[in-house]
Design a protein that fits this description.
Chains A, B: Its EC number is 2.6.1.52. 2 copies of one chain form a homodimer. Chain A contains 9 helices and 14 strands. Chain A is of the alpha/beta class.
Chain lengths: 362, 362
């Protein structure tokens, strides 16, 4: 097998151009005689790499100057602890919206350190929608409001973002739709994202945090969990994940060459539109459980009317070079993750396969 | 510049064969059609990679079956918190040997969670030796005894390991001499090592822990800091640093092909011997501040009698393709890090340069 379209939910497909560039300079980065993996993180070569990556990200997302960008480790799971330990401050509790698997994990971990007020939940209809923000029971004393902009497993995405209320910062787990659409960073207090969907390889976590939030940490916080420590050291308090940062930098450069986030957003709309259209037009052979307004443009979740055909669907897809289409084991069904790096041709190939499979088995 | 010898203390030189192999399969790992960076961590391809890596490491180090191998993130700095949070149990304090920069950071962090009894310190002579274990003031009630087998900055290495006392486990930060010499794992309760010296790229931390130590964690420990959580999930509680794990696996395979740890130890002795010999024979032009018995075979620290020549030494070395020789900013001077992947030829080239430089400026 020499070429596949990889619909994995993460770690996920990377731009072909990025892999080619990384391959080309694997043994010698820009005439340094070293692989990026071999460079001291404090040497001038790697400092150039990380500075350029941050600058490109700032430009792509239009990040205001009073926000810090941190290159951390541990994934979103580590942020589930770091967010409350850093931002609870002198408040007793935090507000959280529960829209699925990742929200629930964030809630569970926050409860170890703080009261957690679930302002709204879509569990009543199996996490197939986002509760309207007018119905949320917000606490005016909350330390922050946390939500998950895209639920990777449920395939549910916020179509609009909540309004900040008073001084209560919005905190968003943007792991699976980071850089996929234009957002106004200034409306958020903190955004975090594991890299392994839209940014680069796993092992890297990006945090974008407003500077005034850096000094609310609990006194007993482990040093490596303090945003202030990492911010003061420009993400060099200890050795960062240098190679993942380098690949992320190549992805940012690629995104700029593609026309930036606005262009990606248009492409993502087109790709998701093709897939949802094919599902809707299948006469019920396929169906998507998620309400139309909240269907994710990143993770297209669908089922077959006849579940006994699922195995044949996956096997046939694999034979056609369309891999990693099985839904998460927690929910079953199918899932096509179509992040920025999934080319339109990959989605078209999947749609063709789906039509053909439905024709044969319908 | 196309070929250099890289004496960086970490991230550091990797085996040329490993980089070539990674380059060759960057776009397509073993016919999967995917880069390792793009693979789901739960897919069969990556499961094969991580299982093979663990198996090879177990075989290289002869790790007993009652020890778990964990592939974590956050480096040794994260372990400075995780070790006390997991191993303090119902004890009030921990024993620590202070042999330099990294010991001191481990002590500082442990003090956030536990009483810390410094059983011995070599600070009286500027961290140029390891205090004899007969002089250590050990506490029979300590939760564990922590030491740093090799101080990367000071260039000081334990030549023998302390004896375990009673039931008190030995905990060792082996970041900079892991896999460089034969050790008896069964004498330790826990060994940890950041990858970026002898294992692979930064962003990966290995922990080898005896199973009976997994259930002593403080109740308020963040989930991502619990060894028990990571052990129960076979390092897949969340997405691990997949690409660094893959490279580490290639390094382990390379080590086996080189003859294993015993062969590496002999090579490391030879390499360090050449450098220290050159220093000793320079008639005082170069000198090593570390006592002979504790000179590191991984990080050879030396000074020039005439410190005003240091800049010329570094510039000339760079011109000769010998890079990253400057000592850590905390101590100054020179440092040649000669981990497993530094070929003998690199050390010989450095020795030749040192002799020539001394001849010209002596």
């Amino acid at each position: 097998m020499s070429k596949v379209y990889n619909f994995s939910a993460g770690p996920a497909v990377l731009p072909h151009e990025v892999l080619l560039e990384a391959q080309g300079e694997m043994l010698d980065w820009h005439g340094s005689g070293m692989s990026v993996m071999e460079m001291s993180h404090r040497g001038k070569e790697f400092m150039e790499i990380i500075h350029q990556a941050e600058q490109d990200l700032r430009s792509l997302m239009n990040i205001p100057s009073n926000y810090r960008v941190l290159f951390l480790q541990g994934g979103a799971s580590m942020q589930f602890s770091m967010v409350p330990l850093n931002l609870l401050g002198d408040r007793a509790s935090v507000d959280v919206v529960n829209t699925g698997h990742w929200s629930k994990l964030a809630i569970k971990e926050a409860r170890r350190y703080a009261g957690v007020n679930v302002v709204a939940s879509s569990e009543d209809r199996n996490f197939t929608y986002v509760p309207a923000s007018e119905t949320w029971q917000r606490d005016p004393q909350a330390a922050y409001l946390h939500f998950t902009s895209n639920e990777t497993i449920g395939g549910v995405q916020f179509s609009t973002f909540p309004e900040p209320e008073g001084e209560i910062p919005l905190v968003c787990d943007m792991s699976s739709d980071f850089l996929s659409r234009e957002i106004d960073v200034s409306r958020f207090g903190l955004i975090y994202a594991g890299a392994q969907k839209n940014i680069g390889p796993s092992g890297l976590t990006l945090v974008i945090v407003r500077e005034d939030l850096l000094d609310r940490a609990q006194p007993q916080i482990p040093t490596m969990m303090s945003y202030r420590v990492h911010a003061d050291a420009d993400s060099m308090y200890n050795t960062p994940a240098t190679y993942p940062i380098y690949i992320a930098g190549l992805v940012f450069k690629w995104l700029k060459a593609q026309g930036g986030v606005r262009a990606m957003e248009a492409r993502n709309e087109e790709k998701a539109g093709l897939l949802y259209h094919a599902i809707e037009q299948s006469g019920g052979f396929y169906h998507c459980p998620v309400e139309v307004a909240f269907r994710s443009r990143m993770n297209v979740v669908f089922r077959l009317r006849d579940e006994s055909l699922e195995e044949a669907f996956v096997a046939g897809a694999r034979a056609a070079g369309l891999v990693q289409l099985k839904g998460h084991r927690a929910v079953g069904g199918m899932r096509a993750s179509i992040y920025n790096a999934m080319p339109l041709e990959g989605v078209k190939a999947l749609v063709s396969y789906m039509l053909e499979f439905a024709r044969q088995h319908g």
